[in-house]
Design brief:
This protein is of the alpha/beta class. Helices cover 42% and strands 14% of the residues. The protein contains 15 helices and 11 strands. The chain has an 8-stranded parallel barrel with strand order 4-5-6-7-8-9-10-11, surrounded by 5 helices. It has a 3-stranded antiparallel beta sheet with strand order 1-2-3. The longest helix is centred in the first third of the chain and has 22 residues, at 34-55. The protein is globular, with a radius of gyration of 19 Å.
């Protein structure tokens, strides 16, 4: 694998909330339709109703739990993103972050075979020793589109994570129009994942992507043609996505209809959304939680940032229509051209674009 410099950040690092929100975007007077905001708000509130229903039944240490779609597994509302754990300068600090999260009530752990040259999985594997594996719903991802590459990456992830079973394994970076057909082709990566599932190495199967909701829809369509239904799907869900090439509007309703678990990522667009000065970290997290996400995955590269994520989950209350409309009004202008969603509009976040050999 390539060294760490070739790998882009994949999840959101929380930033401590010190910035104030400019008042210039507090209303819709800048040529933005108020009716459009209310339309977004109505849709969000409708979806949030399902979210509230699923989160009432259980919490652990104040962290709400939701149901992961058709799997019926219970998972924490906040999930720890794996990239930044491996990017932390001190491996022992990464272990402390993971174990503190698990002790505080988080159970959903995100990772990937390619994060930081495998270091993210190595650190997570070390953190899951001494009984911590039993506390975790462990998710990781592979890049292999061909059967041989996928099988090799699955076994390598199991070794690094020091486990004989991954709870949810996902195809990573489904960002090309050709990816769905390659994965489901004869000799494709899906054959390796299904074989691993039959062997008891993995429990549930999903896919991720951050580029285009249309590619997500194609992946779901190709799967359906092969008689396959995913257990979970991961995608960006945030205050900017609601306005631009939106996964929330295009993909989320399809997942809910099929009872597929919804994994929200990039609630702050890998902190880039915060640079727009239109929303605070807590607003970004609460917006994503207000949707019927099973989990909102966010990167925590220090204990203070982890504590902020925990606070967001514990303090979350369903947003009403006026709150949603106000937040979307503030972010609409900045979101218009996707300049704060670089994972959609550039190759900055495309690890497999820089390293096509990972696909097999």
């Amino acid at each position: 694998m390539s060294d760490k410099e070739n790998q882009p950040p994949q999840e959101d690092s929380l930033r401590l909330d010190r910035a104030s929100i400019p008042t210039s975007h507090d209303t819709s007077d800048e040529g933005i339709s108020r009716r459009g905001f209310l339309g977004f708000a109505a849709a969000s509130i409708f979806l949030a109703h399902a979210s509230q229903q699923s989160s009432r039944s259980e919490s652990r240490n104040g962290i709400p739990y939701r149901t992961l779609g058709r799997s019926k597994e219970k998972v924490s509302l906040i999930g720890l993103g794996g990239y930044h754990l491996g990017n932390q300068s001190d491996p022992q600090e990464s272990i402390r972050i993971i174990r503190t999260g698990l002790d505080e009530g988080v159970n959903f752990l995100d990772n990937c075979w390619d994060y930081n040259g495998g270091e993210s999985e190595v650190r997570m594997g070390n953190a899951l020793r001494d009984g911590y594996r039993q506390k975790a719903f462990l998710m990781s991802k592979i890049d292999g589109r061909a059967k041989a590459a996928a099988a090799s990456q699955i076994n390598e992830s199991l070794r690094r994570l020091q486990t004989d079973r991954i709870d949810l394994l996902q195809f990573h970076e489904v960002i090309r129009d050709t990816d769905p057909d390659r994965i489901f082709a004869e000799g494709g990566g899906m054959e390796a994942i299904v074989a691993a599932q039959k062997a008891g190495k993995i429990r549930f199967i999903g896919f991720t992507g951050h580029k285009s909701p249309d590619i997500h829809l194609k992946m779901l369509s190709v799967a359906s043609k092969h008689g396959f239904t995913f257990d979970a799907v991961q995608m960006p869900l945030n205050v900017m996505d609601a306005h631009f090439n939106s996964f929330e509007k295009k993909v989320l309703p399809v997942l809910l209809k099929s009872d597929i678990g919804v994994l929200g990522m990039k609630p702050m667009g890998d902190h880039v959304i915060l640079e727009s000065k239109t929303a605070t970290p807590m607003e970004c997290l609460h917006y994503a939680m207000n949707l019927p996400t099973s989990v909102v995955i966010t990167g925590c590269d220090s204990l203070p940032i982890l504590q902020q994520a925990l606070q967001a989950a514990r303090s979350f209350q369903a947003m009403d229509s006026s709150q949603v409309a106000s937040l979307l009004a503030k972010t609409a202008k900045a979101a218009d051209a996707g300049q704060y969603e670089l994972y959609k509009t550039s190759h900055r976040f495309d690890g497999t674009y820089a390293n096509p050999q990972w696909l097999g």
